[in-house]
Write a structure and sequence with these properties.
Distance between the termini: 40 Å
Number of strands: 22
Largest sheet: 5 strands, mixed
Structural class: alpha+beta
Low-confidence stretches: 1-31, 544-549, 551-558
Strand content: 15-25%
Helix content: 40-55%
Radius of gyration: 31 Å
Mean pLDDT: 86
Number of helices: 20
């Protein structure tokens, strides 16, 4: 978007001359923007709302245990089958900035709460739809934004009021099972739930923030076995084979050293050539190199190191030296795997072997190698900290990817439950209660904010409406029946989409974490307000490309 200064200057002179000639006239100034399309006011809002609704429509059918799957086909023909909302959105190629804003909001929901991504997108789109309707009857966007903020504060206070604390492990299992409902079959969901609770319990006393489960638990997809054979290993399992086959393949424990680099000669950073005129000089050069490597190996041996893991490579000359010193070596580790080993064994990652001290080495409890399918896998166990490996099995790559995504969600929810165990009713019960409460609360506010609060309440009903639609039920009848049932029996009455009954969600085991619902409401409201604040969209037109002169010449010749 470029502004032509000459045009602006000429326009200003003409405007001033016109004003002097006719003092009573006050024409609105117009700014000429070259190569730019412009949408202003209501047209900009309509465009942004339509983009949000289109994106929400792409994931609406995935919501709930009766949700449908999406087949995502990449440019190279690769296929992903999933009903995970954030996977669908992040895989899609989207160009509209408002749609990208909703995708970012969904990704933030996934990062912070690990569930509720589809809910966030649907809520955002409905809030924008209702805001557009309010602007048609003359309500200013600023008033709508203020009303939405008031409604959000009241809704969050209601969430805290109706939530309950998890009393035992069965309720935690129900929360994770609800998060996995519709993504995988019931038997596999039970296996992944046990794995997630096991890993979360091990990480409960560890420090590292909300993303600790991503860092401490390695996901390793294994082709052998059924998906239900997946398991959690309290140790590091990685596709590795020892450098020298003459060294032992297993050990009952010992001293381990971790090198955040390699045990090799450094290459010159500059392109240089060395001219050697004497064989003795070249021999001396290699001798000094070997002596340096031998010094490093001797230093490791003096620290009692039996197992060496390095991030980079090992020089060929060092192979025999390490074997002679009784040191088993594994190389080419990812940095994340070295960090997990450091947690397991208490060893510190050191860049320079020569500066390694006794306090930098650690202890492992066991090491073994196993051939799975056609690949050797190394397993290292330790007793210092919590670091694990999730062995995710499946007969096809597509199945293994889906199991991995489901396990990520289960583990993320389980880990966060250990810090905040409060939960809410699922099956649309929470949203129906909030909608009923906000409609009763709206008249307590002055001015047109009442309309915005009612619009917020109406937007919340998109969740039970989508759940009913995906289950083949009539959404209007279900919402009316739910509202009636809650008015008699309280806010924990929700829709069991598998049976169609309106029942107590705690008894049915259909419950959602409080932190998921809270983050979904907050993220959706903030995203909607961000879009409502936009009243001018400037689209830079695509610049013309370089002409294909050869093509034109060939056409002329013809």
């Amino acid at each position: 978007m470029m502004v032509l200064k000459g045009q602006l200057h000429q326009h200003r002179i003409q405007s001033e001359a016109s004003a002097r000639a006719n003092p009573m006239s006050s024409p609105e100034p117009e700014v000429n923007l070259e190569d730019t399309d412009r949408l202003e006011g209501r047209a900009a809002l309509v465009n942004n709302v339509n983009a949000a609704l289109a994106l929400a429509g792409a994931v609406r059918s995935t919501l709930g245990p009766r949700g449908s799957d999406k087949m995502l086909v990449g440019e190279g023909g690769e296929v992903v089958v999933t009903n995970d909302g954030v996977t669908v959105l992040e895989t899609a190629k989207v160009e509209h900035p408002t749609a990208n804003l909703l995708i970012s909001t969904s990704s933030a929901q996934d990062r912070l709460a690990r569930d509720g991504t589809t809910t966030t997108v649907l809520l955002t789109a409905e809030l924008l739809r209702n805001a557009l309707e309010l602007t048609r009857i003359g309500v200013h966007p600023s008033v709508i934004m203020n009303g939405y903020r008031i409604a959000l504060d009241e809704a969050l206070s209601q969430l805290a009021e109706i939530s309950r604390e998890a009393a035992d492990k069965s309720e935690s299992r129900a929360v994770i099972a609800t998060a996995l409902a519709g993504k995988i079959d019931t038997k596999l969901a039970s296996v992944l739930t046990d794995m997630a609770l096991d890993a979360a319990a091990a990480l409960a006393q560890e420090e590292g923030g909300g993303d600790l489960e991503r860092l401490r638990v390695k996901r390793l997809q294994v082709a052998s076995g059924k998906a239900s054979d997946s398991e959690i290993v309290h140790g590091l399992v990685i596709r590795k084979q020892r450098l020298d086959f003459t060294t032992p393949s297993a050990s009952d424990g010992g001293v381990i050293a971790l090198v955040d680099g390699g045990l090799e000669n450094r290459e010159l950073m500059l392109d240089a050539e060395i001219e050697v005129r004497s064989l003795g000089v070249l021999a001396g050069f290699h001798q000094r190199t070997r002596e340096k490597l031998q010094t490093q190996v001797d230093h490791l041996a003096s620290l009692g190191v039996e197992l060496l893991c390095v991030r980079d490579g090992i020089a060929d000359e060092a192979h025999v030296m390490l074997t002679a010193a009784g040191i088993t070596v594994y190389r080419r580790f990812e940095r994340e795997d070295l960090e997990r080993l450091a947690c397991l064994t208490g060893a510190a990652m050191v860049r320079d072997v020569g500066r390694m001290s006794a306090s930098d080495v650690g202890e492992y409890s066991s090491r073994s190698e196993e051939k799975i399918e056609n690949s050797w896998h190394l397993r290292i166990d330790g007793n210092r900290g919590a670091a694990m490996t999730a062995l995710l099995r499946g007969t096809t790559p597509t199945m293994r990817e889906e199991v991995s995504r489901a396990f990520d969600d289960a583990l993320g929810v389980a880990h966060r439950l250990s810090a905040e165990s409060s939960f809410l009713p699922g099956g649309g019960a929470t949203q129906i209660h909030l909608a009923r409460h906000l409609r009763a609360y709206a008249p307590s506010q002055k001015g047109r904010e009442q309309l915005a609060i009612e619009g917020f309440a109406d937007a919340l009903e998109i969740i039970p409406r989508a759940l009913a639609e995906n289950a083949g039920l009539d959404p209007i009848d279900e919402i009316l029946e739910l509202s009636s049932a809650q008015s008699k029996n309280g806010p924990w009455i929700g829709l069991d989409v598998m049976s169609g009954d309106k029942t107590d969600m705690a008894s049915a085991g259909i419950i959602d974490p409080l932190f998921v619902a809270r983050q979904a409401l907050t993220g959706a409201t903030e995203a909607a307000i961000t879009v409502l604040r936009i009243d001018d969209v400037l689209w830079a037109q695509v610049e013309p490309g370089t002409p294909d002169w050869n093509s034109e010449e060939s056409e002329d010749e013809i």
